[in-house]
Structure formats: C-alpha cells, structure tokens
Amino acid sequence: MKRYITSILLGILSCCSVKVMAQWEDAPTMGVFTREELSMTDCAFEKNAPAVILLDRARSYPGTNNELVTDRVVRIKILNDAGLDYANIKIRYYAESDFEHISGIDGVVLTPVEGGGGMDKFTLDKKNIYRSKINAKIGEVTFAMPGVKKGSVIEYRYISTMKHYGGLDDWHFQSFLPTLRSTYHLTLINNSEFAYRVQKSEELNMILKPEPNKGTIYFEMNNVAGLKNEPYMDSRQDFIQKVSFQLAAYGSYMGRSKYMNSWDEVSRELLNHNSFGAQLNKNLDGAKAIITAAALNRTKEEQLSALFNHVRNHFQWNGFYGMYAGGNGVKSAWNSKTGSCGDINLSLVNLLAEAGFEVKPILVAERGYKKVNTSYPFLDQFNKVAAYVTLNNRTYLLDATDGATPFGMLPESLLNTTAFVVDRKKGTLVTLQRPGEGYVNIYNITASLQPDMVASGKGYVVSKGYSALNRMAARVPGEENFIRKVLVKAYTTLKVDSLSLEEKVKPDTVQLTQRFRFATPLEHSGEYFLLNPMPLSGLDKNPFTDEKRFSDINFGATQVFSFNYHLTLNDAVTIESLPRNLRLKLPGNELEFTRRVLREGNIISINFRFEIQLPYYSYQDYDMVKSFYKQMYEYLDEQIVLKKKG
C-alpha cells in the first residue's frame, strides 16, 4: 500500500428537522457470525497478521437533549496465539466533569471446540467489566473477552454518550490490525454545519454518502491493511486512514455564524475565547518583581532567558496538553504553581508581554502528534501552545513545560513541523527547523589487545545538540541504565565501566562528554580471531530492513557520527586482513559514509564518518535510503582478522 494521502474538505448541514434512529436497520445480530468469519485462518491481504478486525461500525446521532450518542460494534477474529492480547479490550473516554459516559457494554465469543465438531459460546459477564481513572481528564473501561483461543471470533458493543457535539472525534478506518470493513454514520444536530476532511491512500477506495436533506453522512472503507510503527516515523496520525471533523457553522435565534473556516478566523476565534485570548492580559502576582530582577541581566537575550527559566521553574506541569487555560484561568494556575500546557505557556506570554518583549502565542504540533495540513484550518491539528518571541531579528520558540531543552534551542519534538502564530492582525503559518548543529557524536577509542585476546581500553565521547540531550535523559535512572542503553545497547559481550559524565549547557546548544573503560573479547574460529569495532561506534542496528515502507522518514535534523579507533596489537598475532578504505554517498552528498584504515607497525587506526545532511525523505525515496544503509552496514560488519603466530 502506498503512503500517498489525499485530503478532501466538504461541508455538511443538518436539516431543520432530523428524525433520529437509535438502532441500525442493518445492524448484525449479536453473536451470529458468517461461515466465512468462523472458518477464516488468515487475512488475504496481510498474511502474517495475528488477528483481523472483521467489522468496526459506529453511528453517531443526537440524543434527547442534543447529546452526542455513538453506538459501536467491533468484531475481531483471532488468527494465532500472538493475537490473543487483542481480546483484552480498553475503551478510553473523557471523564472530566462527567463529559462522557460509556454504557450498554455487551460481548460474546465463539471458540472452536478442541478436536473439532462445533463452537463453544461465551458471553461477557458484567462483573468482569472494570472502570478506572487514567488521570483527571481520561477514564478507562477494561474487560477481557472470555474463552478466547486461536480461531475465536469475538464481538463487543457499547454506547458512548457525550454532553455535546464538541466531543466529535476522528473516525479511524485503520489500526495496527488489518480491517475488513469499517463504517461510520453521522447525524448532525439541527442548525449546525461541520467540515470534514478525509485522509486516505490513493490506492484505497472509500464509499461516501452525504444526505444534506437529512443532515447525515456515511463513510465506509474495506480491506485496509494494518499500520505498524516504523523507524524515524512521525505520528501515526499523519498516515492513518481516517476522517476528521470540525464545527464550521452554528445557528441560534440570533442568526447563523461561521466558525473558523480560515486561518484568520482561527486567530480571531482564539483571541476572543475566554480561555485563550482573555487570559493574555492578566496581572500575575509578583510579576513586577520578577521582571525587575530579570532586567539586571546585561543583554535582552539574557533577560528573556531569565524570565523563561523563572516560569518553567515556577510551575509543575500536570502532564496535560492543549492550548487553553483551565477553567479557573492563568492567575489561579500561577498562584497554585501547577497547571496544563495552556496554563503555563499562556502565563509565560503574559509575563513576557508585561516585560516589553514582542511575544505572541504559537500553536504547535509535536512530531509524535500529527502533521499540520496548512490547507485546512483545523484546530485539532495542534496539541500545544507555546510562546513565540521576536528579538534582534531572531525568533525564539519557548515551551515552559519542557524542562530539558536549553533556552534558544528548538525542542526536539518540534523539528521539521509547522506551527501557527496567533495574531489579531494576521495569523501566520511558520516552519520550525533547527539551523546548524543537530545531532553530533564524536567517538575516540584507544584499545590494546591483551594476551587473553580481549581488546580493552578507554573511550572518550563528545555528544552535542540533540544527541547530548537524549543521552542526558538516559542518566536519570542511573549509571547502569546509561551504560546499557547508550554504550552497550545490543552488544552483550561489550563490558563498560568507570563511566564519568561532564555536562555543559550554553544558549542554543548543550554538550555531554563521556569517559569510560571497556573490554570486549575477540571472536575466534580455529586459529583466527575476529574483531569488529562496530559495537563501540554508537550506531544502532540498521533501522531500514523492511521490504516496504508506508511513512516518510524524518531524521529531525542533520546528524554527524565520527568514529576514531586505535588498536595496539600484541606480539602474539599477525594481521590477516583489514576493512577497506571507501566512500559511499547519495547524489548531492545528502547521505555520506567515508572510512579510512591505516596500519603503522602494530597499531591499526580506523576512522569513519557518517553524515545525514538532508533530515527528511519521502516514502518514495525509501528504496534509495534502504540501499545506502544496506551497503553501509555491510561495510561496518567487515572485521579485523588476526592470526596467532606459531
């Protein structure tokens, strides 16, 4: 399946009077499965799938008081033992202020009788349905379908009731599992208009049936392959087959109003919103004293840094994302010293504006969330708000919920993303990129071959930029975790100890120096001994081995790996062969690998350098990138071959 995504934006309008049907005329009978469903042993278009979604069907319609009611039916066939976990069902819902309620849960399983001769039927016991709180906003209903084995067919149903249509979520036609049939039917409330956007592969067909006179629309997709996570993949949301909704217009006794049909309307709506724009002119307690203290710094950049660091040290982030302040506003969050992303970063905008900086709120979408489609002013494309400052012909994006990224350095999660600067005069879409230094690792390894054929010595590594930030994060559980995850990785024969770390944080960058001792035994076959310096290079295993790829490749920023290895041999061995000198590159030097090998007496020096100059590749370039990595890792696997004398 190709990754290529097409998007369609249309408007649908409810009629003045809608007759609500709470049941589907074509709803399948509970627990009655077809012969094909019962006898299926694999998925025709994804042979290795552990399970397959036979049906995922939902219908949303207004309740008696215009609540958003959704009935859902899911059927899954368990194809092998690896799919048994898909019988453990989790349904998450919006629990805050009792916004959403899950009811009408029912389930049934048909399982083949051992030895053949029919099916056993199991029904879900209501006593085995559990409810819990994930956090203050999200609740979860969990239950395990009974009697499930390889070959079982399971079905479960439930009803979601939300207080209003503001909770209308995306409908996903795709998941980790392949899906035979996925359908969604939406009925709108009176006097409303919703925009919808379809995201799908050009190779997949969609059945789309709008009925404007009835205020309904129907979507259906069939035979959709599962989407797995891929190395250097941005959010699954960027590639998954789905339909998204956003309120486009609403009506009342005062007339009809349009709602965010352009980016300028997004700015106006947000700046007029009580939990956004109205929070930007608050007098935070103690702000004047904080600003006065920051002004003692010599330069404006230092003053800006001081205010930014004060806010992120002042607050405890509660883990909640979003762009709006909480119900009690930023002043309450400021005084309590805890809050959501909206509370914290809108407080930062307040403080910087009072200090005289040119600052605006900016909506951002982290790479793990979704990619912004600039053609459509959908607010749900963003998951955070931050502060955007212009100073001395330079811009700074400041996120006070990020406690690790140094002032002036773009957060790693926002590399190569699109953001929206909220401004009453003219909102602006901007691309966020990291100029200059991205990921840098420079290795210097000095080793000696011992009489017992163990290569041991010292390592000196300098990591800069995002490489340093990532390695600094690995220190938190302790030294052993750092050694295991950063230095040893999958190379279990490599032993590392005597680790020391030295951190230097400066505006715009960070550096981490690592010193350690190591020992690694040589592999041997008869009288020959093999040594591969690869485990000490800092490179992971080849990430691009899959035959096909569905998503684009996003390395985030430029990357440099430099490896200098010096090995002193003992007098008991001779050199049989060494790795070759070589240079491997893509056109334009976007990816480049060079290696030089030198022998001087009993000292072998191996120097290689790997650079990624272009951080982003389309899925269409995957074969080219895959071929480059395949050749590079074949070269990296070349061994130093030694032979014992005599």
Description:
With 646 residues, the chain is mainly beta. Helix content is 14%, strand content 41%. The protein folds into three domains: 8-21 and 37-255, Immunoglobulin-like (Sandwich); 263-432, C8orf32 fold (Roll), CATH 3.10.620.30; 439-644, Jelly Rolls (Sandwich), CATH 2.60.120. The radius of gyration is 29 Å and the shape is globular. Residues 7-24 and 251-258 have low confidence and may be disordered.
Topology record:
Elements: E1 5-13, H1 35-39, E2 51-62, E3 68-78, E4 88-94, E5 100-112, E6 119-123, E7 130-133, E8 138-144, E9 153-162, E10 171-172, E11 179-187, E12 192-201, E13 206-211, E14 216-224, E15 242-252, E16 255-258, H2 263-271, H3 287-294, H4 300-314, E17 316-317, H5 329-336, E18 338-339, H6 341-354, E19 358-364, E20 384-391, E21 394-398, E22 417-421, E23 428-432, E24 439-449, E25 454-465, H7 466-473, H8 479-488, E26 495-506, E27 509-521, E28 523-525, E29 528-531, E30 553-554, E31 559-568, E32 573-577, E33 582-585, E34 591-600, E35 603-612, E36 616-617, H9 622-636, E37 640-644
Parallel strand pairs: 2-11, 17-18, 24-31
Antiparallel strand pairs: 1-12, 2-3, 3-9, 4-8, 5-6, 5-9, 7-8, 10-15, 11-14, 12-15, 13-14, 15-16, 19-20, 19-22, 20-21, 22-23, 24-25, 25-27, 26-27, 28-29, 29-37, 30-36, 31-35, 32-37, 33-34, 34-35
Helix pairs in contact: 4-6, 5-6
Summarize this structure as a short list of keywords or feature phrases.
eight-stranded mixed beta sheet; 9 helices; Jelly Rolls; single chain; 3 domains; 646 residues; Immunoglobulin-like
